[in-house]
Amino acid sequence: MSGTDLSGRRVLAVVTNYGVEQDELVVPVDHLRAAGATVDVAAVDDAPVETLVGDKDPGSTVQPTTTLGAADADAYDLLLVPGGTLNADTLRLQDDALRLVKAFASSGRPVAAICHGPWLLVEAGLVTGKRLTSYPSLTTDVRNAGGTWVDEEVVADDAQGFRLVTSRTPDDLKAFLQEIDAALTA
Fold first, then answer.
1. Using an 8 Å Cβ cutoff, are 111 and 105 in contact?
2. pLDDT of 132-173, one tens digit each?
3. How far apart are CA 103 and CA 1, in angstroms?
4. Which residues contact residue 36 at a Cβ distance below 8 angstroms, ignoring those fewer than 6 apart?
5. Is the pLDDT of residue 16 over 60?
6. What angle do CA 12, 18, 22 make, to 5 degrees?
7. N or C: which end of the chain has fewer CB within 10 A?
8. Is 87 tagged catalytic?
9. Run of H or E including 20
């Protein structure tokens, strides 16, 4: 744990029920809860979330605490968007996930997305004028959507009225979590 006290902070993680990269969900959720934050995991439905390791090997199972449709964006301080190719590609097609990310951005609350997670922001039209990173395969998508893609372990950008924290892969989780902590205590 970082030593940061996140008591009273509420975080919403949005995922599909299959294909989220295990460490991009489990590590941040565990870190935030250990620091005192309340974290809800919202999935498409209330069935267990089956994570993957490296987009192919079965990972741990996570029980969602709510669904994308039932989640109230106004109840949270930060939106967490884990990656995993299958998860992110399916998540960006979920109207409720798009509603949630747009609500966070329009209200000026932070969004943190890792790996393929920024696909949701591309789909929502929220990367225009933003500087961000992601898994390298999203470079063209980010640029075509009006964002500036950079190859850095973590990027925090406050342009366009909301803080966007992004990282490339699970290898960058330490830096990603530090920026999430900073966004929640700003």
1. yes
2. 999 999 999 999 999 999 999 999 999 999 999 999 999 999
3. 29
4. 5, 6, 7, 8, 9
5. yes
6. 65
7. C
8. no
9. strand 18-21
